[in-house]
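Recap from last week: sequence in, structure out.
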Amino acid sequence: MRQAVNGVLSTDNSGAESTAIVALGFLAADDTRLERFLALSGLGPHNLRRAAADPAFLAAVLDYLVADEGLLIAFSQQEGLDPGAVARARERLAGPPPAYDP
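Predicted structure tokens:
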């Protein structure tokens, strides 16, 4: 279960995984959002549940969410979270994003 206090999530792995699971539920609650996510991930409804048990997949769910500002804001507002907390949960699971080097 997520542990949020005033919209700030706990920063341990279980809190980050819980955030990703809630985010996956957020995506699954809307057919359009889910279809787009599945199309980009290459998964289908038949293997989504199994994938959700993989921490790397959970990190990918948060990557997807953080990459789309509108989606991130909608999710954060719905869950009463700071968008930065969602980004920190993503970093907790996947490590820091790669540095930009032009």
